[in-house]
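Risk mitigation, structural track. In case the binding assays with zinc ion fail to produce interpretable data, a predicted complex structure has been prepared as a fallback.
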Amino acid sequence: MTEAETAEGHDEAHQGALGTRLNWLRAAVLGANDGIVSTAGLVVGVAGATDDRSALLTAGLAGLLAGSMSMAAGEYVSVSTQRDSEKAALAQERRELREEPEAELEELSGLLEDRGLSAEVAREAARQLTDRDALRAHARVELGIDPDELANPWHAAGASFLAFTAGALLPLLAIVLPPSSVRLYVTVGSVLAALALTGWGSARLGSAPVGAAVLRNVAGGAVAMGVTYLAGSLLGAAGV
Ligand SMILES: [Zn+2]
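Fallback model:
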């Protein structure tokens, strides 16, 4: 077992703030990756059709804004829904605790026993947890959520927006800044290098094999740029 694997096992055992932070980091890397691939495909496709810098800038910027807002809106909707269902589950738990506290104590004790405590210790632990903060204990043990740390949809939306924008800026700048004779080489080169980096990052964060992830990610970006460049060139040549 490598040091990284040991650390990973440790994280899983705790599943606390560190796990949450790793999830956020993983989402940020994936969001940036999305921004790189979709904007690179877009600007390379337009570059296949035209040399006009302002057309490239317009297309790239529109792609950046459309993509980042679409990501943010999707994230907002999904996290809001998750938050609503967690709130509903907490409300039901609160009601059950009020209406049948004895059955709830029994339930908590059973859940703790399932986790490996002896019947006697589980009963005592359930009693102490219930005395301290029954709702929190049921939220954690039964629902697997922390009532004080429900995901915030605005935070999630903002993070997606920023991650996508950070990724999208790379191909946008790479296509508009260099002289027209080299802009495609600069864009394709920097995009493939960045995709190698995000592929490496997401593989490390998910403790997956790095080589295969980098290769898949770079190949995916290369295909995206190849297809849109071909389409742009055909349209450009046809004078559409
Ligand atoms: Zn309960």
